[in-house]
Amino acid sequence: MRLQRSGVIAGLAYLVIGLAWIWITEPPLYLIAWLFVVAVVGSYIPGEANQVSLARAYLAVPALAYATSGRLGLLAVVVAVAGLTDLVDGTVARRFGGPTQFGGALDPVVDGVFMGALCIGLAFGGFIPLWLALVVIARYLLPALGGGVLIALGRRPELRHTLTGQVSTTLILVLVGGICLFRGLNQDASGLLNAAEVVIPIATLATFIHLGFHLRRPVVVGIP
Fold it and tell me: What pTM, to 2 d.p., does this model score?
């Protein structure tokens, strides 16, 4: 592995923005370390599209800070920005040489990091049940572990998005982001929370079932 020009430039830009945010908001100091960890790792990751995807790993810091502190209006903005990067990274990949296997593997990892930080923060803040946060974490963690097991067994899966995976990620972002927005505006979010408690587990189960069918194939494995 060697340093990548795009990774170093993007990492410096993200760090400047992140440190400016830290200077303004003064979040817990342990969150600063995460920014530097992502910047160091990201400096070795090639490709402009992958750097766009990494934005969600950086956004995990304000997501966790705002969720635990109850600043849900600002948290809704962070979720919206994260959703935008999820839409844009594919377009950037097609513009700069097309999607890659590595990019396909990186995308669900950073999704899981962001959504895990967001939902754990909301759970500890008392805004969503802890069990729902754990379902969201499992939604991203288990497929990643499954892919790792396949690679360890000598298989080389073809990583690509599945329809159920994309739909479940969108539903999680919309429902959880909506809860944040409604709570931030002092509106009743109970309806959205009730919907999330039903829709997110069903969407997660559908994703696992779909991935299970892909696992039966000799080569191709879907990713969320």
Answer: 0.84
